[in-house]
Amino acid sequence: xxxAGTAATAQxxxxxxxxxxxxxxxxxxxxxxxxxYAVPPPxxxxxxxxxxxxxxxxxxxxxxxxxxxxxxxxxxxxxxxxVGTAIGLVGSGLTLAxxxxxxxxxxxxxxxxxxTLLGPSLAYAGSGATGVGFILAxxxxxxxHSALRLVGQDPGRSLYATGTLFGLLGxxxxxxxxxxxxxxxxxxxxxxxxxxxxxxTALLTxxxxxxxxDATRLGTVYRRLTTF
Length: 228
Hints:
Elements lengths: L1 H12 L54 H38 L12 H33 L7 H26 L5 H38 L2
């Protein structure tokens, strides 16, 4: 009887089950501050420690791309210069052939003997070809100078100006040789025309060599600007 009374008393002291509060809900990452839930903080990024004994990293400056107009103009000039140089070499070969033929057959205009006219004819053709090559070469090197001037890297035009001077004298010599060879104003017109043609070719060749030195210098500057 006593045990039964004690159990009944303990059961009477316990609160009813529906009176106990429910357990709190698990925290979620909804991020709504009004919901009353705890949101975990974002992770903290920790930078890696630098090794003081490591060598410093060198940051190379970025090189801007070359000017497209400069590249196009320089390549056009180099193509013209190449064609002019090739034609000039052909003209120089014809001039050398004319000297050889003339040394064998002479310059006397014998009727019915076409071999005596072969030497002067080769000289005229050689000087003419050298003159055409010079005009193309002067145009090409001029374009190369203009291209480098766009980016402020033109090394100067002293060689170009000197070569142009020799070339203009050579062109005047070509005109003079054609005048004496075709018009025959004096008795020794053929000999004068032949000698003038050889001299004109020599002047044009000197101008071409100066252009070659100038174009080589311009090519060095261009490769420095376009090579990374």
